[in-house]
Automatic annotation (TrEMBL):
SUPFAM superfamilies: S-adenosyl-L-methionine-dependent methyltransferases (SSF53335), Winged helix' DNA-binding domain (SSF46785). InterPro entries: Methyltranfer_dom, SAM-binding_MTase, SAM-dependent_MTases_sf, WH-like_DNA-bd_sf, WH_DNA-bd_sf, WHD_Rv2258c. Residues 173-289 form the Methyltransferase domain. Pfam families: Methyltransf_31 (PF13847), WHD_Rv2258c (PF21320). Transmembrane segments: none annotated. This is Uncharacterized protein.
Amino acid sequence: MNTATLKPKDPVAIASELLNILNHGALSLMISIGHRTQLFDVMANLPPATSDTIAEAAGLNERYVREWLGAMVVGGIVTYHPDDRTYQLPSEYAAFLTRQATPNNMAVTMQFIPVLAQVEDEIIRCFQQGGGLPYTAYPRFHEVMAEDSGQGVVAVLDEAILPLVPGLTAKLSDGIKVLDVGCGSGRAISKLAQLYPRSQFIGVDFSETAIALARSQAQGLGLNNLKFEVQDAANLNFEQPFDLITAFDAIHDQAYPDLVLKSIYENLEDQGIFLMQDIRASRDVHENLDHPARTFLYTISCLHCMSVSLANNGAGLGTVWGEETALEMLKETGFEQIAVKQLPHDPMNNFYIVQKTTH
């Protein structure tokens, strides 16, 4: 069994390790900037080029681009040719840093670091006084989350996620009623509505801002089988039950996840399916020592997921609530048939395939 104890280290080795952490933290911030300014995308389509050429191609200020390139070179991301002072993004790195790299674009996820840093002062006050921060305290979080889920979930919905549920794509093609809980800006449910015009889709979220954005984006799609509503997930209000209810990375954030799961159960048809995507991890910290994103998960939990729940006097489950807790809560809700599946390309998520059966 893994243990959470650290082996004694030489003080020099500890100092060196901490300096590496500082450098990597700084590099993650610069990678985020490279993504937002599209510098990686520009460089991926250029031969070795000077900072002037790169800046001109990206429409950016050369002096800032040159300094950014310096960070990329010493960080081991960009190759520098001193003879002609040119820079090149190797194709091996471009495969994980450009918008063409979906769903492998790690630069998207790097954006969470500066976004979370914006609330450090407020989170420290929560450490001192308790409570949490509301969703409104995070101005770019949902934008980044939508982009992240857009490449990790939406981009592979039809080819990878839906096939996890036997016969689901056929039912969607024939026409069923679908609800997406915690839909955010509605990217996932909008794609489903485009793919399956015979089915009816509703997305719900308690955020009026998110629903307004979802409606605005959906207008351009011209879909008559899709609508969005502002609703409290813990008290869903629909006249008819649904054949399929989805929740993509949404349950652990809820103030009252037990009530949300109960509401989902009550709004699901007998033999209906609840498809829940959530973080693949354990609730026991020593079992997460080898998780590929172990530190990031606890950090995003502390600075966002746990905090937004506690802001509403909620359970504060946090990102790393664990597969054990998820299964216990699903069973306590009344679900009996539960399967947990993973995708080969996705080390971050579990997909819970849950069928409602009444006796």
